[in-house]
Amino acid sequence: MTISMRHILLKPICYAEIYLCVIAVLFFFGPIRWEQHNLFYFSFLLFLYYYFFWKGYHLAINSSKVSTWYWHEDQVIHFLNKMIIVNLVFTMIAAIRYIGLQSFSITAMVNSVILGVIDAGVAYKNKFDSGGELYGGAFFSSIYVFLAPLLYPILPLAMFYFGKLKLRNKIFFVLTVIIEIIRWVAVGTNKGVFDIFFIIITILFVKSSIRKISNVYTKRKSGWGKKVIVLLLFCLILGYFGNNISSRLGGKETINLSQMTLGEGAEYNPNSIFSLISPSEILPVFVFLDSYLTQGYYSTSIAITETFTPMLGIGNSMFLIDNFNFLFDDKLLDYSYQAKIEKYGIDRFVNWHSFYTWVANDVSFLGVVFVMFLLGYLGGAIYKDVLYTRNPIAIVLFCLFTQIVLYIPANNQIFAQPISFMAFVCLLMMWLIRRYRLKVGKYYII
Predict the structure, then answer these.
(1) pLDDT tens across 382-398, in order?
(2) Cα–Cα dist 160/390, whole Å
């Protein structure tokens, strides 16, 4: 392995570790002063999590194991050309359901988007106030979840192969992205817009890494075009987040940092170095962004001393808990760390609980060390497969892996949602079977 190749392979874990360390710095020294619980033990656990995450990834990229299965690009393009229109239809129905409409109406969707932009707070409140039967009913939900392994890959793969799609499918894909953004903007929610942004950045990063490996650049190029695009997207995302937060608080002119409700155990710290150096115009947005990023760590710092009750592999996912709850008289969540720390004023549903806490429901907080090692190894093996074989399944899994890492401070996002859960589990099984060429008798499984 050349030095340049090793450098490219190490980039994702370096970025991930820097991101996680920044979150830890914000938790301990940021503009929000969190009540300190179990400070030494929590810091020690974070160190173990970060270290073994790095070691797992490092072991994977140093392994001599490389998939020998190479995908034919034409097959992937053919799949996309067939499925993009299907994905567009499902995205439209999902948008209608999420916005709360009873039928497809361009006028109603436009009005919802305008409300979401002008007054995101009202749009966000309307999402919870809306009642009645959702468009498509339970049947659509079941079909959508069942088809998730086929539909979820469309967005990242269409971005990756965009230049090779037919013109009409490029148009359908762009419409899909627009409708998906409308779906989230119309209800004043941040998550879905962030997810699209994360996927775009991940695909741009992957394509850039592949070009470097393939020696496509015969002349030195600065790559400023993509950097400008990423910067503009980042500014748009921050602007969207700031607009949503200020709207929920009644408008920018009403924001008073000393009176903001930041959650249980939190208060604004005007003496923080981050508070002192941040421009006053963006400080309220930064404070709430800090709350989003570090709230889950506060919950974890309290939960680490609670008694461990094994949840048998179900406790890491709200999706699994909802589906297996009937076996435990609808009290399965009562065994979780989220339930055990409610006595401290931290709600199991309202407040955020980090990825570590969700996984610890099944393996304990010390067991999370091993899970972080496996997660790092998985990420390294997937990224190596992306670079060496252009495996489309690995490309989608790498996008999901990126989202898992980005949501680590807040929750176990990918496993909490039925669509992403089914996509990740099924695609991971397919990737493992392909990678290790598993057989039944003399025949390969797939």
Answers:
(1) 999 999 888 999 999 99
(2) 10
